[in-house]
Amino acid sequence: MKKRVLSSILAGVLAVSVFAGCGSKTEDNSQAAADNSTTPATEAAAEESTEAGGTVESKGTIKVAASATPHAEILAAAKPILAEQGWDLEVTEFDDYVLPNEVVESGEMDANYFQHVPYLDSFNEEKGTHLVEVGKIHYEPFGIYPGTKSSLDDIADGDVIAVPNDTTNEARALLLLQDNGIITLKDGAGLEATVNDIAENPYNVEIQELAAESVARVADEVAYVVLNGNYALQAGFSVAKDALAYEKSDSEAAKTYVNVIVVKEGNENNEGVKALVDVLKSDEIKDYINSTYDGAVIPFEE
After folding, report:
1. Which residues contact 12 (CB under 8 A, 6 or more apart)?
2. Res. 229: pLDDT tops 80
3. Over 50: is that where the pLDDT of 7 sits?
4. How far apart are CA 111 and CA 66, in angstroms?
5. Domain contains 53
6. DSSP string, 237-293
7. How far apart are CA 260 and CA 281, in angstroms?
8. I need a labelling partner for 251 at 20 to 30 A (CA). Which of 107, 112, 226, 239 fits?
């Protein structure tokens, strides 16, 4: 089979296919996040503004709940840019998937950044919350990585390919295998596909289903492994350099599992949040993502 490496320019949790959210840390840690909201970069931006002819007029504070990696890191890169516009970005990190939504629903925080829309929709339905997406920022691509074989050209009859076994991640893995001509899925299987939806299997590959965190551990036992960005990084893979194929930015999975900025319904036109989204979609932040995450995190292009 001809090797096909999907074309996206690559530059990392959450993994819920991974979108990871973070739950509340201790009050001390949350306070520390707030206390440390002024970074050297922010101070430098303020000094530059003063030297240019005066301080920037304050427009207020934007309070955002976020998971640590990559979300809070990306927000840290956005902070000095927002400061130049007069906005103080206050980020609090969480380490579960519930509290970041609850603090936005309650109005304690203006927005959050940790999840994709399928999770958001599920959360709203289950919890009765009123949260909406206001900006698509990045996605964390699935890739096919070397196991005992280093090229998709070498695929042979009966090869074993390890994939995550949870619903979301398995479907993404199977779709990626389909995109690369290894299998064909039944019409309409889409993002709910399982191994039972494989319609054609010309190489008679064996799909080995494992817990997402275990897939990389069998790389020396199977022909190929299919991983999402954060697990690839943890396994020591460079997404940009090692992936034999990965999700295109215009793929169904990338569009569906793009990580988003979320607010409570009715706050879509909050000026601070609009400024935040604009900065997160700016060339400066895209460059930061691309240069920092080695392809494990990719800016989403509309």
Report:
1. 69, 70, 140, 229, 230, 233, 293, 296, 297
2. no
3. no
4. 9
5. no
6. --HHHH-SEE--TTSHHHHHS-EEEEEETT-TT-HHHHHHHHHHTSHHHHHHHHHHS
7. 11
8. 112
The answer, yes or no, to whether residue 4 has pLDDT greater than 70, is no
Quick one: tokens of 164? 């995550």
Q: Do the Cβ atoms of 145 and 226 come closer than 8 Å? A: yes
Residue 67 lies in a domain: yes
Residue 224 lies in a domain: yes
Q: Is the pLDDT reported for residue 29 higher than 70?
A: no
Single pTM value for the model? 0.70
SS3 196: helix
Reply yes or no: is the peptide bond before residue 70 cis, omega within 30 of 0.
yes
> 150 and 242: one domain?
yes
The answer to whether the CB of 63 falls within 8 A of the CB of 113 is no
Q: Whole domain around residue 97: which residue ranges?
A: 60-141+255-299
The Cα–Cα gap between 126 and 112 comes to 18
Kind plus residue range of the DSSP H or E element containing 45? helix 40-51
Judging by DSSP bridges, how do beta strands 259-264 and 131-139 pair with one another?
Answer: antiparallel
Provide the number of structural domains found in the chain. Answer: 2
The CATH number of residue 72's host domain is 3.40.190.10
Domain limit, last residue, from 246, 265, 282 = 246
d(CA 174, CA 164): 10
